[in-house]
Amino acid sequence: VIRKAIDEKKNVETKSSDIDLVTETDKKVEELLKAGFSSNFPDHCFIGEESGGGKLTDAPTWIIDPVDGTLNFVHRFPYNAVSIGLAVNKQSVLGVVYNPVLDRMFTGIRGKGAFLNGKRLQVSNVQELSQALVITGCSKYGDMDQLFTNIKTIVDKAHGIRMMGSAALNMCTVAAGEADAFFAYTIHCWDMAAGKIIVEEAGGTCIDSEGGDLDIMSRRVICSSSPALAKTLSRELKHIRCPRDE
């Protein structure tokens, strides 16, 4: 659906701001996924971006972003993905992130490893921020002064910084060893539920930005190739408080 629609004219609507977009493709993909999961797993719960979110409980819950990187999709920038995570007892146990334009399928299952198109993934061995390629995002949400302070800090201290516009794919890029760390504020549970398990199964680390355990409803994350690098980022960043998803 996404591969076909990316080159077609799109009916674009705005939600909370002029960069918070939804297209007919977002809605169609979520409807297809929700119908499939409801049919096969009628007792499972569902949280989807276009369905208005929901409360995470201990019940098996599918957490879905039908098009992570909608702004990229609208501009035909091929860095967007379907993100599907499964949480049980509020813990991520399965993740699938698929970029249909570039045909890159990232998967991870708790205790079974992480893969890209069937090839096992392994994070890089980078430990030091000075040697790290770091990915982040830039949006109009939250405290912009703190956001730009963080970006300047990373530009000054890291090997390099990139902004690509899809949190799920950013996390998978770390899992693949193609970047060494990712941090973000104001994202949502559907942006990171799948990526979390993929990073961890590739040998990486996911934590809350202030250094504690990651709560996917907290709307902030650091993931990296190593605990040492994650802790360094946590110390260097000026933290942004975000309203929870629930």
TrEMBL record:
SUPFAM superfamilies: Carbohydrate phosphatase (SSF56655)
Catalytic activity: a myo-inositol phosphate + H2O = myo-inositol + phosphate
Broad class of enzyme this protein falls into: hydrolase
Cofactor: Mg(2+)
Family from the record: Belongs to the inositol monophosphatase superfamily.
Protein name (database record): Inositol-1-monophosphatase
Record lineage: Eukaryota, Metazoa, Ecdysozoa, Arthropoda, Chelicerata
Annotated binding of Mg(2+), by residue: 49, 65, 68, 191
One Pfam family cited in the UniProt record for this chain: Inositol_P
GO biological process, alphabetically ordered: inositol biosynthetic process; phosphatidylinositol phosphate biosynthetic process; signal transduction
Cited PROSITE patterns: IMP_1, IMP_2
InterPro entries: IMPase, Inositol_monoP_metal-BS, Inositol_monoPase_Li-sen, Inositol_monophosphatase-like, Inositol_monophosphatase_CS
Xref: Gene3D superfamilies: 3.40.190.80, Fructose-1,6-Bisphosphatase, subunit A, domain 1
EC code: 3.1.3.25
Annotated source species: Araneus ventricosus (Orbweaver spider)
Entry keyword set: Hydrolase, Magnesium, Metal-binding
Entry superkingdom: Eukaryota
Pathway: Polyol metabolism; myo-inositol biosynthesis; myo-inositol from D-glucose 6-phosphate: step 2/2
GO molecular function: inositol monophosphate 1-phosphatase activity; metal ion binding
CDD domains for the chain: IMPase (cd01639)
